[in-house]
Amino acid sequence: MIELQGVKKRFGELIVLDGVDFTVNEGETVALLGPSGTGKSVLLKHIIGLIHPDEGRILVDGQDVNRLSRKELTKLRTRIGYVFQNGALFDSMNVFENIRLGITDERLCKDNDYCTDRVVACLEQVNLQPRVVMTKFPAELSGGMRKRVGIARAIAGKPKYLLYDEPTSGLDPVNADIIDDLVKQLDNELGVTSIMVTHDVRGAFKVADKLALLSEGKIVLQGTQQEFLNSDHEKVRAFLERDFENRPIPA
Amino acid sequence: MEIALRPVRTLGRMMMMALAHLGRFSMMLLEIARGIVEWRIWLPRTFTESFNIGVGSLLIVVVISAFAGAVTAFQAGYQWQSSLPVYVLGTLIVSTIVLELGPVLIGLVLAGRIGARYAAELGTMRVTEQIDALESLGRSPASHLIIPRVIAGFLMVPALTILADLIAISSGWYSVKQVLPMTNEDFTYGAQYYWRPFDGYYSVIKAFFFGGAIALISCYMGFNTKQGAEGVGKSTTAAVVASSVVILIINAVLARVLLN
Asked: Least packed by Cβ within 10 Å: which of A10, A22, A33, A162?
């Protein structure tokens, strides 16, 4: 379980998170919605200890992320797969080496046969042809392929949690749908607990069991899809209506 | 009152910034110390980095040292007076190159070449979240990115300086013979007459410190890059400027400490 309790974060004068309370239970897929620049990615980076809060606690499996020793934090990170917004692939390494780095168990990472099998399996899982892409460098891949390789790297270490930071941003609607389907498929196949940061409401409804809306540094609402659709909260309505104004709201 | 306080505020802000830099730089050194035990990770990357900066800098080092040696010889020839024995020029050229020109000129050139490269590479990795990705995978950015570059800097700058010294002396030797009636025997006699083995060590010691300073400062600047492409540009410029200034400071300090 991932739990954020009263998390506050400011950068200089700018208050980004202002007492965020947010919970994700085992096996759930939660979409964290919110307009651009509201601190969704900042919140996600708190969970993996890349950013430290000014106040509040972040608990992952009951462990307070900010009180962990370096060794414990490293161990925790091996249980979490993080998919970065633009893939964040290492551009000096090819696809194989990128995904191999995602195998977080040092003993397995040294085993060349295991690594080859695992990289192939991960690439197939994200619907990429290993033979075609394995030797390519990130600069030779399309935006959608880079995102998929980023996902493959995140799942290579067989994590318990998957954190997606805007996995569909910058993609055309067709590719965005493909990535959304892929996220859904992986959540079902791997049985992981996921948090997907997005401002794409349709994608969130397609993928997530639960939704949460972050606005002005606070979680305005966290609940099921139906609770979101039934909500009278001004900000929730504004966010949903803006996205659905020309398209039917999914049943 | 407000106007009177302004310089105090500015000074305070600058001191805070300096302290923040000092703190972050110390943290980086601590990370390097912690990462040293992961030699299986940094050792192969150190070979790659050393090869990249060593071979990559060869041409510029050869060209610059050859011209520097030639100009030193021409200027020495211009200032030479017939009342002085001609072999003195051999001493002058070798001492100037080994004690000062070789290490400092190559240090400054490599501050531009290696410093800009390191800061831009790490800065780009920072703004494209590659460093965050490395950390998210439970890997140490120090052992993957910083230690190989720093060790490569410590090793390759002295190696390139030795090469530069040799090329500059050869070039100076050839050039001085073009402008003055000087034989090879005169040059080698003069070169050896005042030569102390410590001069050679001094050149390498200086280059060692310059290499470390370039690598550490540039890695620090790149690692702490902010705000996209503009940030990478700022870090790269800052890395080159700071490395160059620190080289000149180290040069003065080492001259004071080691040449007394």
From this structure: A10
